[in-house]
Write a structure and sequence with these properties.
Distance between the termini: 22 Å
Order of helices and strands: HHHHHHHHHHHHHHH
Radius of gyration: 26 Å
Number of helices: 15
Structural class: mainly alpha
Largest sheet: none
Number of strands: 0
Helix content: 55-70%
Number of domains: 3
Strand content: under 5%
């Protein structure tokens, strides 16, 4: 709303020349400066909100990164306003402090077990893996406590739900005859090693090098250069599709986990749109008609 008011500022000013009775409602230069400052403070939060609502791809792998950027941004803005004495800047600082407290109340819900999928989704990003958790403790030497914790959860989740039954390789069956008891034990242990090597080979290796952004003109010459809420990001689903042969069980795991949305913005947008599709005077629409209308409008 604030951004819209700034965008329509000149048009509104021209309109007031024909409707002079509304002139007392016009904002003062100082108030316009306050609005501009608030927009600058909220720019990063607006960016991630638009990204979460606009993107049609994977979002769960970026949840922790979004929280980290927002907390860093709020801390920076609060510190900038620490010594300000103008009342409106003091009010903005108090609002930012409350916003940080609210964000913290949401962030604590990402802890295991409620936020287990967020950590797993982050690890399933081949261009990040455990790098983000390593950044949380830059003073630590070697593997950080965060890395150990999330890697342990990652491996445990895989072994619980995606390890093949009887420790077999996905497309290989254990022969029922021709093996004595000692050979069967050795055969089973070798297959267990194969399974574990697939789990550890992915998470313990370095992150993949993210491909460079393709030339903007080659991609789409009509596309806006830097649209709000959109930035270049390598297609991790394509990576998993190409590497499904290397990690067959992880590919199944990635398919299930990365399909989960990182937020409820998209769902809320659909519910907000529902009243436009089903107003009170169209309350007898069939479910099939409603579904078709929602798909068309989306």
């Amino acid at each position: 709303m604030l951004e819209r008011s700034v965008r329509l500022r000149e048009f509104t000013k021209d309109w007031l020349q024909t409707c002079a009775e509304f002139t007392p409602l016009w904002s003062t230069p100082e108030e316009w400066r306050q609005i501009q400052y608030i927009l600058e403070v909220l720019q990063l939060i607006r960016f991630w909100t638009l990204w979460m609502s606009k993107t049609r791809g994977v979002t769960i792998h970026q949840v922790f990164q979004v929280y980290q950027d927002i907390f860093d941004h709020l801390d920076m803005e609060i510190s900038k306003l620490e010594r300000k004495r103008m009342q409106w800047k003091v009010d903005i600082r108090e609002g930012l402090v409350k916003a940080k407290l609210r964000a913290t109340s949401y962030y604590v819900k990402t802890e295991s077990p409620r936020g287990l999928l967020f950590g797993i989704g982050t690890c399933l990003n081949p261009y990040c893996k455990l790098n983000l958790f390593r950044e949380w403790d830059l003073d630590a030497s070697g593997e950080t406590a965060y890395e150990k914790s999330y890697k342990k959860e990652f491996i445990a989740y895989y072994e619980l739900y995606y390890t093949p039954i009887n420790n077999q390789a996905p497309d290989m069956s254990i022969p029922q005859s021709g093996l004595n008891s000692r050979s069967k034990q050795l055969y089973s242990s070798r297959h267990r090693a194969v399974i574990l090597s697939e789990a550890l080979a992915y998470i313990e290796t370095d992150s993949e090098i993210e491909p460079l952004e393709p030339d903007a003109e080659a991609r789409d010459p009509t596309r806006e250069a830097c649209p709000a809420g959109i930035f270049y990001e390598a297609n991790i689903l394509e990576w998993w599709k190409v590497n499904a042969g290397r990690f067959p069980n992880f590919a199944r795991m990635a398919r299930d986990i990365l399909a989960v949305q990182g937020g409820s913005v998209g769902v809320e947008r659909v519910f907000s749109m529902a009243r436009d599709v089903i107003p009170y005077w169209r309350s007898r629409l069939k479910s099939s008609t409603i579904r078709s209308s929602m798909l068309v409008k989306s």
